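**Entry details**
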Amino acid sequence: MRLAVRIRSVYARPVETPAKSEYKGKPANPDTVKKTVDFQGMKIRLDRPKGFVMRGTDEEGKSWERIYKYDYGFLPKTKGGDGDGLDVFVGPDKESGMAFWAIQKKKDGSFDEYKVLLGFPNKKSAMDAYKAHVPSKYFAGMAGMTVNMMKAMLDMMPDEKLAMRLFFLEELGNIFQRRA
């Protein structure tokens, strides 16, 4: 199964306020990174730390606001399905050995991108964290793997990495198809 993805960025550059910051205007870029954290050997660049406020307007003109309950960023030198770095939510359990992959769909039901949730003790807590940040209508499913398996997958040689990614993405695609 091959999934082609095209999305437009809804993220914008943060504007600092005394208590919090919010995104307005321009697309996110490396300049928006606040800090880099290490999660079990993986370097995650955070551009939306816990407490960050993001505001926008949906397609119907309705205003919305999202306050990040967990640190959010991306893994450099990876692709998350949308052409940008793989998005990551970092939860409170720094010892959790699981990585949960949320499958995100577009409004029309087609595949959008993946988001990884690290630092959550189980699938339910990862799912709750995802749904606290992204409207449920965009949730298409979730799969889990160990953090060590994810690190191995990201560190493999190109040919091996491609084979593992194709296998894992096929499995995620099967989950997506069953939910559609």
Q: What stands out?
A: Residues 13-179 form one domain. Confidence is low (pLDDT under 50) at residues 1-27. The chain has one domain: 13-179. Helices lie at 123-133, 147-155, 158-179.
